[in-house]
């Protein structure tokens, strides 16, 4: 049996005639933060529900902490923390009462007061759930997922609806979880969130895995890195890359630029005796990758409709 | 964060924690509190005032008979309707799903609900009995009758709760739960001697139908507790039939429990 936190093999999820997840395989190693990235409707939540044991996969297999999430539900749940997107809280109970309730289900919970302080919820302890703001409800939901000291947490869009400060607190908390050896599987459509937090990223598109890797691998793979050089106007660099001079004296060299390539480009400027006043490299961001992939989706979508 | 070698809290303690929050939650929603408690009491006041005549020879007024019979309605309303619509709502708004993602068992979930229902039913019965005693001069029963009341009350509440949970499985939307659940409640009250007494005014086949369900036995039992023995002449069998009452209610507890276990779902079937 594998020692991975989550192992998903060829999972298919169908709702009637709709296929929400279409043959996804992924592995979340222990102690890592794993992000599922994709548009709304890409199948992230459906896949998560299979891992959480809320839904049986139509096809394929799923092991969570080496267990079957449906058959071994009772053995698995004390070791999991699950943060749902919404719903399922008693609207008339206070934030503190709710967190104490969920804490009381665990063998060795974190002190609810400490956790509320950590998440900036101490001021809302006596506020009824229905009166909490969207971001506060979200933070309480995160606290509920963490209060039982889980080994593995599933976070479905953990920072949706949070303000910038709460989002950063949440990110720090997730980083602390990883430092404590907790495995995290989260869904998000925020690219900076995935880039900052995730050790591994899977980009999902129409129920399938469109790309997978570490954020660095994903951003490095396709090679549209840019080298920007400022020198005198009107030069014609003879390099094996695409060169544009958008404004006079501002050269942008685009391509797969490793150190040797960058050196060769700068060597050309040196041989020409050019007055180089600025050099700047720009890495492709996860957003570029994501947009490239989703643009593909739009194109194929249009082609499909035209057929 | 490894799981320490500490045992998980028991189902009973999880059930109690849930019962506490369920009760807080219910009591804070004032609209629900008022309508749940006030409606049976209001019906009792109306019926008791409109139909004030006495039964021949016994000196018992119709309002006293209503006071006793309406306790059956009070339990139906708090146990069957509140429970049925409550579970349907929990299923729809994701409460059950969220709980399914924690270590608690279905039994702990149901225990929490049962605690709420017991508290509500005790309060409801107390209101109806107080209205009966204070406004309609219903006699206060002796200790032996209170003992009967206790088992009758518990069996009735448990049977209605179990059936309520079972029926919640066929309720598609929580929005329509109240309407759906009130159909059997109102129908059974008309044929079970709650609204129309003596029950012998009904065609005998209808009495047979009513005898299959718990409400007839509940209302008959509560009339035994609160009315003089001479009133038994107005019952279907001219007897109080306590043994059979216990048997039928016990059977419904078992039927309800089995239905619960067979039909219970943590989530809605689709989405």
Automatic annotation (TrEMBL), chain A:
TM spans (from-to): none
Presence of the UniProt keyword Zinc-finger in the record: no
SUPFAM superfamilies: P-loop containing nucleoside triphosphate hydrolases
PROSITE patterns for this protein: ABC_TRANSPORTER_1, ABC_TRANSPORTER_2
Domain ABC transporter residues, every copy: 6-231
Keywords (A to Z) from UniProt: Antibiotic resistance, ATP-binding, Nucleotide-binding, Transport
Principal location class: membrane
Domain of life: Bacteria
Protein's cellular compartments: Cell membrane
An annotated Gene Ontology molecular function: ATP binding
InterPro entries referenced in this protein's UniProt entry, alphabetically: AAA+_ATPase, ABC_transporter-like_ATP-bd, ABC_transporter-like_CS, ABC_transporter_ATP-binding, P-loop_NTPase
A Pfam family per the record: ABC_tran
Entry membrane topology: Peripheral membrane protein
SMART domains: AAA
Name used for this protein in its record: ABC transporter ATP-binding protein
Organism classification: Bacteria, Bacillati, Actinomycetota, Actinomycetes, Micromonosporales
From TrEMBL, chain B:
Ranges for domain ABC transmembrane type-2: 31-267
InterPro entries xref list: ABC2_TM, ABC2_TM_bact-type, ABC_2_transport, Nod_factor_ABC_transporter
Chief subcellular location: membrane
Transmembrane segment boundaries: 32-51, 71-89, 110-136, 148-171, 178-199, 205-226, 246-266
Keywords on record: Antibiotic resistance, Cell membrane, Membrane, Transmembrane, Transmembrane helix, Transport
Recorded topology in the membrane: Multi-pass membrane protein
Pfam families found in the cross-reference section: ABC2_membrane
Localization (cell): Cell membrane; Membrane
Family per similarity comment: Belongs to the ABC-2 integral membrane protein family.
Classification via PANTHER family: NODULATION PROTEIN J
Name of this chain's protein: Transport permease protein
Phylogenetic lineage: Bacteria, Bacillati, Actinomycetota, Actinomycetes, Micromonosporales
């Amino acid at each position: 049996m594998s020692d991975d936190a989550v192992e998903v093999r060829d999972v298919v999820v169908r709702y009637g005639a709709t296929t929400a997840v279409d043959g996804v395989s992924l592995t979340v190693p222990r102690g890592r933060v794993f992000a599922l990235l994709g548009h709304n409707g890409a199948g992230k939540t459906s896949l998560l529900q299979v891992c959480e044991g809320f839904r049986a996969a139509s096809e394929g297999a799923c092991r969570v902490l080496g267990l079957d999430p449906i058959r071994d539900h009772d053995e698995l749940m004390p070791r999991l923390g699950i943060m749902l997107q919404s719903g399922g809280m008693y609207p008339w109970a206070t934030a503190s009462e709710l967190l104490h309730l969920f804490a009381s289900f665990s063998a060795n919970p974190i002190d609810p007061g400490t956790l509320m302080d950590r998440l900036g919820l101490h001021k809302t302890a006596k506020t009824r759930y229905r009166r909490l703001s969207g971001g506060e409800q979200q933070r309480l939901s995160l606290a509920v997922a963490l209060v039982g000291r889980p080994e593995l947490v599933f976070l479905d869009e953990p920072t949706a609806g949070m303000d910038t400060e709460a989002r950063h607190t949440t990110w720090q908390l997730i980083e602390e979880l990883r430092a404590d050896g907790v495995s995290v599987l989260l869904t998000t459509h925020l690219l900076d969130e995935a880039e900052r937090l995730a050790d591994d990223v899977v980009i999902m598109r129409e129920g399938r895995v469109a790309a997978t890797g570490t954020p660095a691998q994903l951003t490095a793979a396709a090679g549209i890195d840019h080298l920007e050089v400022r020198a005198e106007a009107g030069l014609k660099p003879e390099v094996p890359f695409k060169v544009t001079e958008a404004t006079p004296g501002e050269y942008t060299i685009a391509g797969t630029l490793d150190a040797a390539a960058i050196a060769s480009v700068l060597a050309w400027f040196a041989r020409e005796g050019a007055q180089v006043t600025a050099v700047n490299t720009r890495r492709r961001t996860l957003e570029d990758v994501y947009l490239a992939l989703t643009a593909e989706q739009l194109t194929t979508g249009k082609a499909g409709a035209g057929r | 964060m490894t799981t320490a070698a500490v045992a998980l809290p028991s189902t009973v303690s999880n059930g109690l924690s849930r019962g506490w929050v369920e009760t807080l939650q219910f009591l804070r929603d004032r609209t629900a509190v008022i309508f749940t408690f006030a409606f049976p009491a209001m019906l009792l006041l109306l019926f008791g005032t409109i139909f004030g005549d006495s039964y021949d020879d016994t000196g018992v007024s119709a309002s006293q008979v209503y006071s006793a019979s309406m306790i059956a309605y009070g339990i139906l309303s708090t146990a069957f309707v509140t429970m049925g619509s409550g579970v349907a709502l929990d299923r729809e708004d994701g409460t059950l799903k969220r709980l399914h993602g924690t270590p608690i068992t279905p039994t702990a979930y149901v225990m929490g609900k049962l605690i709420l229902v017991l508290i509500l039913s005790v309060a409801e019965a107390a209101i109806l009995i107080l209205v009966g005693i204070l406004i309609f001069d219903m006699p206060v029963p002796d200790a032996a009758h209170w003992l009967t009341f206790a088992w009758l009350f518990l069996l009735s509440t448990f049977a209605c709760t179990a059936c309520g949970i079972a029926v919640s499985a066929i309720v598609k939307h929580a929005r329509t739960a109240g309407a759906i659940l009130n159909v059997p409640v109102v129908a059974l009250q008309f044929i079970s001697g709650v609204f129309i007494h003596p029950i012998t005014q009904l065609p005998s086949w209808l009495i047979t139908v009513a005898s299959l369900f718990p409400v007839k036995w509940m209302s008959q039992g509560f009339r035994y507790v609160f009315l003089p023995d001479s009133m038994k002449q107005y019952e279907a069998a001219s007897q109080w039939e306590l043994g059979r009452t216990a048997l039928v209610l016990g059977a419904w507890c078992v039927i309800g429990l089995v239905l619960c276990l067979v039909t219970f779902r943590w989530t809605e079937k689709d989405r």
